[in-house]
Amino acid sequence: MEMDLQNDTVVFFIVGFSDVPNGRLPLFLFFLLVYILTVLGNLILILLICFSSLLSSPMYFFLCNLSSLDIVYISVTSPKLMYIFLTNNGIMSFSQCIVQLFFFDAFWNTEYFLLTVMAYDRYVAICKPLHYTMIMNRRLCIIAAAGTWIGGMLGSLTPTVPTSMATYRPFNKVNHFFCDIKALETAAIGNASYIQNAILVHGFLCVTTSLICILVSYCYIITTILKIRSREGKYKAFSTCASHLSMVSMFYILLFDLYFRPKSTVSPMEGKVLTVVYVYIIPLLNPVVYSFRNREVKEACKKILRQ
């Protein structure tokens, strides 16, 4: 109870990009544009999938979930960051900071799990094409999608609970643009090794296991593609999973570079820039890489425009 009362008086000052001279207005416009484009791009994709009969396969069902996830994921940090740019007021209460951390990590976890489910979908489509509709039936897709969201929320408790139990000074300077767990670990008073341990446990349970499942799926996919005799057949099979593979690669490379590299080797500005790519650019690119270059999506768009 004493710790709870103490934390009720704790505030965090989010530094954001205040160390960039004369950058508030340009950065505000940049993040506002990225936010609007991300929301619009993913919203258009959701509407296309919902209203087009051409996009009724399980792959597009999971893409619809991914687009919904990208919208809420980027919305966890964007409004507060743009408010900081406009007012230069980066004050957040303890409860606001923990809530932001929880939802950021929850949607982040959901993305791992969703990418894993999408890898399994590509595995079934390429390795078991004759049984694809039977295996990836509607019931399984709904259960898998619901499981990714629920699992993401539950997985977020692993780092959030220890972080919320740490002791902080009444006023804490967070050298980041949101309540990032590594920044909060630095702000904690005394030995905060249990937060680092929670990050490692969370990384193993959510990140590593998801990555292993994706790698196993792609081992089977690549083995199957290599067995295809025609060059055209190999290209067609690989093209169905190339977008997913490219985004997974970018996602995990940035993740390990940010959170599993020693803190001493990452400068605060470098960490912010990498996080911007991770939090803002990937959700912006997802609808383009996954779908807008897809022939079926283009046909669905043309059909709806004609109607």
Explain what the structure shows.
There is one protein chain. With 307 residues, this protein is mostly helical. It has a single domain (2-306), classed as Rhopdopsin 7-helix transmembrane proteins, CATH 1.20.1070. The chain is 77% helix and 4% strand. The chain has helices at residues 2-8, 24-51, 58-75, 78-87, 94-127, 132-135, 138-165, 181-187, 193-227, 231-259, 268-292, 295-306, and strands at 11-14, 91-93, 171-174. A 3-stranded mixed beta sheet has the order 2-1-3. It is globular, with a radius of gyration of 21 Å. 37% of the residues are buried.
Most strands sheet: 3 strands, mixed
CATH C-level class: Mainly Alpha
Strand order of the largest sheet: 2-1-3
Assembly type: single chain
Supply the CATH superfamily name.
Answer: Rhodopsin 7-helix transmembrane proteins
Number of strands: 3
Topology:
Blueprint: H1 2-8, E1 11-14, H2 24-51, H3 58-75, H4 78-87, E2 91-93, H5 94-127, H6 132-135, H7 138-165, E3 171-174, H8 181-187, H9 193-227, H10 231-259, H11 268-292, H12 295-306
Parallel strand pairs: 1-3
Antiparallel strand pairs: 1-2
Helix pairs in contact: 2-3, 2-4, 2-11, 3-5, 3-11, 5-7, 5-9, 5-10, 7-9, 9-10, 10-11
Summary tags:
307 residues; mainly alpha; Rhopdopsin 7-helix transmembrane proteins; three-stranded mixed sheet; 4% strand
